[in-house]
Amino acid sequence: MNQIIHELQDMTHLSWAKTRNSSGTAGSFLKAYEDGVDGKTYFKLSNYDAWKGIIGHECVNEIIVDRLLSILGINHLPYQLIHAKILIDQKEYETWLCASKDFKQHGESKIALDAYYQAESLPNESPMDFCIRCGWESTVYEMLVVDYLILNRDRHGANMEVLRNQRKKTIRLAPLFDHGLSLLSRCESTEAMLREDVMADKPVQCFVGSRSSWENLRLIPRDQRPPLHPLAENDRAILLEGLSEALDQQWLDRIWEMIWKRWQAYEDLCNQG
What we know:
With 273 residues, the protein is of the alpha+beta class. The chain has 2 domains: 4-101; 109-271, Phosphatidylinositol 3-kinase Catalytic Subunit, Chain A, Domain 5. The chain contains 8 helices and 13 strands. The chain has helices at 58-72, 113-120, 127-133, 137-150, 190-195, 213-217, 236-240, 249-271; strands at 4-10, 17-20, 28-36, 39-45, 48-49, 53-54, 80-88, 91-101, 109-112, 154-155, 161-165, 170-173, 205-206. The longest helix is centred in the C-terminal third of the chain and has 23 residues, at 249-271.
């Protein structure tokens, strides 16, 4: 699969459903799907405003984080970035959208982690302790590291999912997905982006942790820090390859600066013992 399709695709047949942004940014996130011979393909747009149009770059973030997770060696949902012509409320837009496949295996059903926690947790058991009891701590710890590196603002309880196969009696956490509300997604202009402190520890949603992505790193026991493949300076080319048509180079440069500086801070934390 080509990770980026640069040639403009006619996707005006898609029907977009609106999902309100849960993180407080004005606008909506629109989603669509279509059935194919190999199952459903799911599509989503960056932040959409009925007056201003498509104003975000969350779809580009998904590709960058997809590549970052591949470098680090973390299981995740792959995304594809598509240059497309679409229709919303009978108005045509030329934009970039994300596509992904269903991560459920045959026979599996899914439930949001917060709903599963509410149904199965013990009295006074925190979401983190619940995940540890279920044997999911390694996935959760990887997620906390990644969400610090990208400053993910939106790891609410439905952005983690539990996959169950009743016939086989199996249950597992879904691979990591939905990372768009991260990096510099809150910046609404180039000027705001250039002023942004890429190391700032801003409030985040994290169902299993706290409102601080930095403090969430301290929830990981020292002897259980994820054995990640190290990020290197030459990985910049891998993360940003082919994206300059979808997002201005100034933004891409700043996104790399953010990821690299936060990675160095995480390494410093690990080296402190």
